[in-house]
Specification:
The complex is a heterodimer.
Chain A: H1 2-32, H2 39-59, H3 65-92, H4 100-122, E1 127-128, E2 136-141, E3 144-149, H5 150-172, H6 174-184, H7 186-191, H8 196-222, E4 224-225, H9 229-244, H10 249-269, H11 275-289
Antiparallel strand pairs in A: 1-4, 2-3
Chain B: H1 9-32, E1 33-36, E2 39-42, H2 44-64, H3 68-78, E3 85-87, H4 95-112, H5 115-140, H6 148-166, H7 170-192, H8 197-217, H9 219-222, E4 228-229, H10 250-253, H11 261-287, H12 289-299, H13 301-306, H14 311-337, E5 339-340, H15 347-360, H16 365-381, H17 389-403, E6 412-414
Parallel strand pairs in B: 3-6
Antiparallel strand pairs in B: 1-2, 4-5
The chains are: A mainly alpha, B mainly alpha.
């Protein structure tokens, strides 16, 4: 019983992280219909920037935890957002009118570039950050206990906050209206005076920023990372996006939570060696049974 | 176009400065601050170099695209997604002379080359096989398969585990591995191929990882990360080892002194024959209705389905054929290494094979053969740049897609004309 509850707690935080990254996939897919393969590696870049920001802030003698975490969040989100913009500008915009296969291959190329670029400049070794936030809340359940670390609570709080802000931006602001219009019909939106190229850039930046939030939180919690972390988590976040219905923003968050919970339960109760296999198999199963996902609309191909 | 005679240096300078500022943001932390434990060491020299390169490069580019030549070039690259070059109907291919020559040279290679050169050429040929297999899937049928390495692994482990558990040798596993890989392709492809192409990419990516994870974790069957040894091919029962437990070895039978190069010569000759067989089969298939259906489906799926093509079956045939070629390549890889372990089958291998297809040209056989040799033999020669290999592949993919999405070697096709005396 306590294992199940503990895994539910772990799964909830894991799922909210998947949800944050899945937002990047789902928004980009919704707006230009491509899978941004480099998104997982944008997350990986943000993990490095987190460590660098923490190292810099401590170097300048800042000790208090709230300032470090706010400074790290701000720096990482800003720099990662710039990465998102540049990636779109270099690798995707010149291919706006090419075949989907070309864009996909270009994205894979971009993903390789990012991995190798980080590996070359930071070395192939695993890196880490110091544990900044310790302590936990414990509940006794039956014979065992369930532990919720403060870090897990922080992850939940910040990711829910991030999703909330994003939902507000998309639903209520002018920028969000422009995004939604472009998603529904790009040609019509540009006729009505929306600079669709700019909107697409913005979407990439938003996606990268959300991935950066996840990058900061996971890095702070988990501590260690290397240049290869983006690959697996990228596929899982994509699975979450597909599960929730690709193109749907609430779907990405819901899909992330469901995937995180089921993966944590699988790892805790059945086998942690095969938890990645479980997630990939889940992806294949969803695509076979319900390719439009939980909240997505079925795709109709028009000539 | 004609009024843009002068170059607006002010605009170019602003472009360059903006690019430089962005480069500073991007490279500043990652390149400039080298993590070292929980501390760091500053490497601002590297950042300065990179920013300078970006600023100068952007300035030159911005100036160039304002000249008439640049405008013309930008226009040309914006519209270069055309299909095959069509030759005149009575075009005579020079290949009639080149192919026998290549075969002749290829047959001479093992007898003149050193052992090291021979091993590099074998590796090159294995990648030719992989490239040809993936080219059927990506190049001809337009299905992006990112888990191709999974089929490669099935072939390689098929040989190793088949020998260990069932006592099957190289010759029996060669066809069985191809069938196994094709079967795996069918199981994977059948449900997924109904869907949009992009999903296929990610599902195959997941499949490749699943295969690797199973090979790593299922230690009781696959021996996990330690790997399994694989048998060498035999020549009518003659083994290529120094001593044989049962029967004679090759060098004893022919009264030759033992030389470990014999086995590579033999593998090379079989591989050479298989590559030519695959080349021939592919060459014929492309001209057959099924090959035309693949290409038609790649160009316009909706139109094809409207005309009554069963898109799932057509795609599945390409997918299985590609997979079986991958399986064949895996068998050769295992016997060539004498040993397989999961670390040979990472996503990087899939990316390398994809780079071969992208560089060689979608659907172009000649291009893939050349690209496979370039991308495997060149890194072997330029060992000191080995760590930049992946970066180069990535840049190659992006640049090729922007610059020449159809690859270096364009697909050519002989045109049709009415026969003499046919009713017009």
């Amino acid at each position: 019983m306590d294992i199940v509850l503990q895994q539910l707690v772990n799964g909830l935080t894991l799922g909210s992280v998947y949800g944050l990254i899945a937002i990047g996939y789902t928004m980009v897919y919704g707006i230009i219909g491509m899978i941004n393969f480099a998104h997982g590696d944008v997350y990986m870049v943000s993990a490095y920037i987190t460590a660098i920001a923490i190292a810099l802030l401590t170097f300048f003698g800042i000790e208090s935890f709230p300032i470090i975490i706010i400074g790290t969040l701000f720096l990482t989100v800003a720099v990662t957002g710039a990465y998102g913009w540049v990636i779109e500008r270099i690798a995707y915009r010149p291919l706006r009118n090419s075949s989907r296969l070309s864009v996909l291959i270009s994205a894979i190329g971009m993903s390789l570039i990012l991995q190798n670029y980080v590996q070359l400049s930071q070395g192939a070794n695993q890196q880490g950050v110091p544990t900044l936030l310790t302590g936990a809340i414990r509940f006794t359940v039956g014979d065992g206990f369930v532990q919720i670390t403060y870090m897990k609570l922080l992850i939940l709080f910040i990711s829910l906050l991030g999703m909330g802000v994003l939902t507000y931006v998309i639903q209520k602001t002018k920028l969000g209206r422009m995004c939604r219009a472009t998603q529904q019909d790009r040609k019509m939106a540009s006729i009505l005076g929306i600079d669709t190229d700019k909107v697409i850039s913005t979407v990439f930046v938003i996606g990268a920023m959300m991935a950066a939030l996840a990058g900061v939180l996971v890095t702070l919690d988990y501590g260690a990372f290397d240049f290869y972390v983006g690959f697996i988590i990228g596929i899982k976040a994509f699975t979450a996006a597909v599960l929730g219905g690709i193109g749907s923003l609430p779907g990405a968050m819901l899909g992330g939570l469901i995937l995180g919970l089921s993966e944590a339960l699988f790892a805790g109760l059945i086998s942690s060696d095969y938890k990645d296999v479980f997630s990939f198999s889940l992806l294949v199963l969803i695509l076979i049974i319900r390719p439009s996902g939980l909240l997505g609309k079925p795709e109709v191909e028009k000539v | 176009m004609s009024q843009s005679v002068g170059i607006n240096f002010k605009k170019s300078s602003i472009d360059a400065l903006v690019a430089g500022f962005l480069a500073l943001i991007l490279f500043g932390p990652i390149v400039g601050v080298l993590l070292d434990g929980y501390g760091f060491s500053a490497e601002f020299g590297r950042v300065a170099w990179m920013v300078a390169i970006v600023v100068v490069g952007r300035f030159v580019m911005s100036c160039f695209f304002q000249t008439e030549k640049g405008v013309a070039m930008a226009f040309r690259y914006a519209n270069n997604d055309e299909g095959a070059t069509v030759l005149s109907p009575n075009h005579k291919s020079k290949m009639v002379w080149i192919i026998p020559l290549v075969i002749l040279v290829g047959l001479l290679v093992p007898f003149v080359a050193s052992k090291y050169v021979l091993t590099v050429v074998i590796l090159g040929l294995i990648y030719v096989l992989l490239g040809l297999g993936l080219n059927i899937v990506v190049g001809l049928a337009g299905l992006l398969d990112l888990g191709f390495v999974g089929f490669y692994a099935i072939g390689a482990y098929g040989l190793a585990l088949g020998y260990e558990n069932l006592g099957l040798g190289f010759w029996s596993m060669l066809p069985i591995a191809a069938l196994l890989a094709a079967f795996a392709g069918a199981i994977l492809g059948f449900p997924v191929l109904r869907m949009h192409g992009d999903y296929l990419a990610i599902v195959t990516l997941g499949f490749g990882e699943i295969i690797r994870l199973i090979l790593t974790n299922w230690a009781s069957f696959t021996h996990g990360p330690n790997g399994v040894s694989a048998p060498l091919p035999t020549l009518f029962g003659l083994e290529f080892k120094r001593r044989s437990k049962d029967g004679e070895t090759f060098h004893e039978f022919f009264n030759l002194p033992y030389d470990s190069a014999y086995k590579y010569m033999f593998i090379y000759l079989i591989l050479f024959a298989v590559v030519w067989a695959v080349l021939f089969i592919k060459h014929r298939l492309v001209k057959m209705p099924i090959g035309r259906a693949w290409e038609a489906l790649r160009e316009d799926e909706v139109a094809c389905r409207s005309l009554g093509l069963n898109h799932v079956l057509v795609k599945l045939s390409a997918f299985m054929l590609g997979a079986s070629t991958g399986g064949l390549a895996g068998v050769f890889f295992a016997t060539y290494q004498g040993f397989v372990n999961p670390s040979s089958f990472t996503f990087f291998e899939s990316a390398l094979i994809l780079a071969i297809v992208v560089l060689g040209g979608m659907g172009s056989t000649l291009g893939v053969v050349i690209a496979a040799f370039c991308l495997t033999v060149l890194p072997e020669m330029l060992r000191e740049f080995a760590e930049y290999r992946v970066l180069m592949f990535g840049i190659l993919m992006v640049v090729m897609m922007i610059w020449k999405p159809r690859g270096i070697v364009r697909v050519t096709r002989t045109g049709f004309a009415a026969r003499k005396g046919a009713v017009k």
